[in-house]
Amino acid sequence: MTSLVAYGAYVPYFRLRRSAIATVLGGRAAGGTRAVASYDEDSTTLGVEAARATLAAVPEARGSVRSLLFATATPPYLDKTNAAAIHAALGLAPEAMAVDMAGAVRSGAGALHLASGSAEDTLVVLADVRTGLPGSADERDGGDAGAAFLFSARPELPPLAEVIAHASVTAEILDRRRTPDSPVSTTSEERFTEQVYTRLADAAFDDALERAQLRAEQLDHLAVAGLHQRALRSVAGRLSARTGKAADGSADGLAGTVGNPGTAQPGLLLADALDRAEPGRTIALVVIGDGVSVLVLRTCAALAGRRAAVPAAAPAAAGSDRLSYGDYLTWRGFLDRQPAARPKPQPPAAAPSLRRAGWKYGFVASRCTDCGTRQLPPARVCAGCRTIDKMTEERLDGTPATVVTYTVDHLGFTPHPPLILAVIEFDGGGRFRCELTDAAEEEVHAGMRVTMSFRRLLTADGVHNYFWKARPVR
């Protein structure tokens, strides 16, 4: 039987205070913050970070994953598989099929549905970078995040939760849409579609309970996700009254600190429910959008000892809220600023990127089998003993490191100055010069502990240049 065996979530470091929007544009100031993907992050990098957290709990499963489903409504590429970059960054087996389930928020619910019924080890990655026109509700209430879930039927991987039922109702509803050439969504009057979604939610919820052979009051946790705010509140209220449980995602908490991360919201709410649930409890996940989908899970005994290393609510409550509204608009492309007088960046070439994919995407170094010297980047000739072709590969993306020395560059170009470059030394040996991200100038010091993070260095001629940066361990 296929079960959920690992999960993880990722929330970016930066926060935008909702009151900062009103300070610039006027109007009523809303409370709380929303999570903001940095200038060097997109839905692919968010997905990589969430998937890394998931596989860190079951490293033995990395080689057994046979399907990778990446769901997002904000894909960095069209006409190219974004999941392929995630596949490369995770170092999955070549025979693992990586596909995108992109275009709509409901894709996330579909990916979870398919994975829960797969006979092969399937990794589901959900991520979104949500935005809207300046001053819009989408901008204010949106958020950026990623979540990942590994499903497997292998007996050596203890199940954390079993999917005991799923039900779905589909309807063609023109309440939200976005054309491929538009950066923002268009929405229709919510009052009519609120009634439609309420009716569909009742039908899907009743069907799921019947399949699970449960009564509403037997559910222990209820999570309701979706972008339709009126329907979200209405459905959450109705189902809460039936179950006697408060619905996650409908009030403060993650919504007040992270915002609504669209495709990733069901995953973030499910991860948070798993963080809090005791073994033997039932969880109902309701997703609203172009219909209603319901997933019912029962937690297992192994959950108590194998929860995510970092709870979903922990990074959600942390982060820096010093991001200015001007920087946010610049990062999202709504505010053009005078660029630095620097040469135009060049995109990475296809051939060398493919030849060095293990290093570029997976951060795979080499270690000499004769003297044990670690090489970054990997090399054929050992820098220590000069032997040739006596190397073993070694992934370092999860190995902590320490800042040896650093430079704060106020002239180098970066969308979030100053540019901070550091020489870091990995535990077990090996030094590397790289850029620090998610770090303020005043907090950087020699001896600071850092870890690697998958980022987008730049975009040139329509090509995203993905590689690794270091960020502080928090």
Automatic annotation (TrEMBL):
Domain (ChsH2 C-terminal OB-fold) ranges: 398-455
Domain ChsH2 rubredoxin-like zinc ribbon per the UniProt entry, residue ranges: 363-386
Pfam families tied to this protein: OB_ChsH2_C, zf-ChsH2
InterPro entries linked: ChsH2_C, ChsH2_Znr, NA-bd_OB-fold, Thioester_dehydratase-like, Thiolase-like
Highest taxon in the source lineage: Bacteria
GO molecular function: acyltransferase activity, transferring groups other than amino-acyl groups
Listed name of the protein: PtnP1
Native organism: Streptomyces platensis
